[in-house]
What we know:
Elements: H1 3-12, E1 19-23, H2 25-34, H3 41-50, E2 55-59, H4 69-78, E3 83-87, H5 91-100, E4 104-107, H6 127-139, E5 143-148, H7 152-160, E6 165-169, H8 171-178, H9 182-201, E7 205-209, H10 214-220, E8 226-231, H11 233-273
Parallel strand pairs: 1-2, 1-8, 2-3, 3-4, 4-5, 5-6, 6-7, 7-8
The structure holds pyridoxine-5'-phosphate.
Amino acid sequence: MTPKTAKAAGRELGIPPIRLGINIDHVATLRNARGGRHPDPLRAAELAVEAGADNITAHLREDRRHITDADIARLRANLTVPLNMEMAATPEMLAIALKTKPQAACLVPEKRTERTTEGGLDVAGQHDLLAPVVAALGDAGIHVSLFIAPELPQIEVSARLRAPAIEIHVGPWCEALAEGRRQEAEAEWRRIVEGARAAHDLGLEVHAGHGLDYATAAIISGVPEIVELNIGHYLVGEAVFSGLYETVSHMRAVMDRAREALRQSDTQAKVGGR
Ligand code: PXP
């Protein structure tokens, strides 16, 4: 079944389709390693859309270690699918979001020293800090999601904050599975499934993300309440393997063609000189 017919069949059975959000932060990380323009996160985003991504996610961090303000502006201006801006709930990020108006914003916790988003947002403990941010984004027509652990208090406060969506942090489940900690993985899985159901029953749209690969994305796509996955690290890493053969072959051909042209002109010059 093609993805389109699978989506249609699911709809007939009352099962919503599942959206794929591609996080392109690592493309910007790679670009920033040299400080130039290559590889361009917008080009990567457009390719991802061509390949079937439903939306593009980019995290504008306080330290701008990967995505920059200019990236967010270019993505917003050029993408044909929704842009989901991951952001900390700070006055600076709120001002940028309200100016740029991405179609969606995912509020995440942020620590300067972390390599990536570590835990979920403590919405239960930060209700008063988050309430005006969620309200301001919502008033601007931005679809807000809250990145949280699948814990009932976090889910209930998310609903009370009137955020339309949550994104369940599935990182601990993915890590436990990858490291063979079976009991922990099973416990995390139960939390995800029960959390997704509880959130759905409270009227929240349920997304999931962090640490997903092909295998875990396939498993989690079997949870009917989850309607969006956001995936980055694994896909950018895998793209190295699925794309390296083609790019090295191309470089080989470019060099060989140039050398062959040199030989031809050299031969002609010698023949002409005789
Ligand atoms: N969702 C959120 C809220 C994230 O912070 C991240 C990482 O930036 C992702 C999804 C994507 O996670 P990964 O890069 O591990 O696929």
